[in-house]
Write a structure and sequence with these properties.
Elements (H helix, E strand, L loop, with lengths): L4 H12 L3 H20 L4 E3 L3 E8 L2 E4 L6 E4 L2 E8 L1 H7 L4
Antiparallel strand pairs: 1-2, 2-5, 3-4
Length: 95
């Protein structure tokens, strides 16, 4: 199952007892802050979870996988995520 913003809002509701409309608003606000921070080019570090970073990719040669035609991929920015040690250990069953 994929975790959605709605699922996160329900989890916040069950753990805090805050009304559902407030938890949805809270989750939207948190993701909005993360988006704004990344749009401005800054990193987002969530201790115990990981770090989101904006990386610049240079122009490069590529190929269309359907036709095999060579194309030039324009420079762009991408968001990368590096998992924190605490999260990595929990995913791997270590505590």
């Amino acid at each position: 199952m994929t975790l959605t913003k709605a699922h996160i809002a329900v989890q916040v509701l069950t753990k805090t007892g805050i009304p559902k409309w407030r938890t949805a608003e809270l989750v939207d606000s948190v993701f909005g802050i993360i988006k704004q921070t990344l749009e401005s080019g800054e990193d987002v570090l969530i201790t115990g979870f990981g770090k989101f970073t904006v990386r610049k990719k240079n122009e490069r040669r590529g190929r269309n996988p359907q036709t095999g035609e060579s194309i030039t991929l324009l420079p762009r920015k991408v968001v990368t995520f590096k998992c924190g040690t605490v999260l990595r250990d929990r995913v791997n069953g270590k505590r």
